Amino acid sequence: MKRTLLILAIAALALPATALAKGPSAASVTGPGLGKPIKITGTEDTGSPMMNFAEQAGFFPAVFGQTPDPMLRDRPKGDLGPRYTIDYTVPASDTQANHIRQELYPYARPSPITYMAPGQEIFDSTTRGGWFQADPQLTKNLVVDGLPARPPATAAAAPRHSSNSSFFSTGMLSWFGAVAVLLAAATGAVLYRRVHRRPAA
Hints:
By secondary structure, the chain is an alpha+beta fold. It has a domain at 31-145. It is built from six helices and eight strands. It is globular, with a radius of gyration of 33 Å.
């Protein structure tokens, strides 16, 4: 028994530090309607704000894979709403860290959606990647931290017939202006000739 415990202890010490610290230590959320990034930090302990956020966003199955696999097979259909970006910091050692990016659609229905691109480098591997149906509590927590309660307008609506409006406001007006100048010049020339015409002998 003692020999078995000794072997397990030696094996644990032989594991690289990266294998013992796979969770993120910080995350930053940016996107439309945010005056400044939303920062999430905390320990890697279960139940901490950082771990709750990572689990709700599907960080672990998207990075390392999981059985059974909770990732979606394809992109959800329909409009997902405004896109936000999550930038994770994952410690690799005492002096180095991995940086993983994940897209977030907090206003998607019936629950928020995240997407992580595959192939991002982390430790000695790469992310599995894919779409994930996140926990609805994720959006609720972000609203408390500063996310708009409703989807913000990402851009002003384009005016109808904008190309025609541009034509009339620039091309046509310039053309009419040139014609008006020519007509004024021609009229002035005619009047000048009439005024200075010599009387017949």
